[in-house]
Amino acid sequence: MALSGLVAVLPYIALQLIGIRTVIEALGFTGMLPLLIAFVSLAAYTWLGGLHAPALTAFIKDVMIYIAVLAAVILVPIHLGGYGAMFHSAAGHLPDVPDGHIVAQGQVVPYATLALSSAFAAFLYPHTLTGILAARSADTIRQNAVFLPAYTIVLGLIALLGLMAHAAGIVTTSSSQVVPQLFLAIFPSWFAGFCFAAIAVGALVPASVMAIGAANLIMHNILPHRSESVTGSRLAGFGVKVGALGCVIFLNARFAIDLQLLGGVIILQTFPALIMGLLPLRLPAPALVAGWVIGSVAGLGLCWIDGLKPVHPVAFAGFSASVSTGLLALGINIAVTLTLGAVIRLALGASPSTLRPGSIRR
């Protein structure tokens, strides 16, 4: 299971590296140099600062992102003639949507299932618990949870930047360059630089926490005899970042967000062991392991067949749509786990439907 957490976090960190690389490319650097700068920055940031580095800079990162986003949603529409003019101009660049729906008919199921799979996966990543366990107290966690919805609002505002870019006439061959080019076109150079710094720091902080969480997995589950070694933890974290760099170079995902969604496909396969294991009905360990292996292989196989896309076309009994690959693999995982669990219980003489907690552990 630790292997799933380790592998799943690599494309997630790769997504952050792409974010840092993007702003460096916007400054005029070309070739592999922006990616190299992004990698060295992340490696040095984590190696020298450890968990203290993201903890101390997280507040600064939040303030910078809020300033950049609020400035964008206020000043850019003013520059474009107001929100009405902006939406009218952007509409000319967008495909017609029937019946006035925001999402086209064929996009509803993929969007909904991807959102659901992302919600399931959110608290399964190792770096999620890293922040919780490193908190000073339970009150700190509660206080942060209160303000989390504000971040969701910011994400909604960030989504408007794409429409602003359409209205501003931004043309680029890379979808990742849309926002940086918008900032360069609208803002003065000094504030565009500030926005670039906000993007870079906004990627650096979560990437470092992810790398530390993955390093903890390695040191406490794969190399437990070295778990107290600081140097070993640093080397493990460095190895994780090298793996993420490999994902950027060798996984030719069409959109950067696909890397995060691919990580979700992998980490979702730990759901039965981590979440269903909390149920009173204890599932045998061999069944959980078999479901995890088969679900992981199925999910990765479907992603490979679909060209590293996180959705897979499904046609059954008149239903036809693209569905989240992570959910499909999770369904296979759960089916295998429950079926094999029932077989094991029957083989041991226990009821397949009722079982006292803890009566079968292997």
UniProtKB/TrEMBL annotation:
Annotated TM spans: 26-51, 63-88, 108-125, 146-170, 190-214, 235-255, 261-281, 288-307, 327-348
GO cellular component: plasma membrane
PROSITE patterns assigned to the protein according to its UniProt record, in alphabetical order: NA_SOLUT_SYMP_3 (PS50283)
Source organism, top-level taxon: Bacteria
Main location (coarse class): membrane
GO molecular function terms listed in the Swiss-Prot or TrEMBL record: transmembrane transporter activity
Topology within the bilayer: Multi-pass membrane protein
Keywords of this entry: Membrane, Transmembrane, Transmembrane helix, Transport
Subcellular location: Membrane
Family: Belongs to the sodium:solute symporter (SSF) (TC 2.A.21) family.
PANTHER family per record: MONOCARBOXYLIC ACID PERMEASE, SODIUM/PROLINE SYMPORTER-RELATED
Protein name as it appears in the record: Sodium:solute symporter
Organism name: Komagataeibacter intermedius AF2
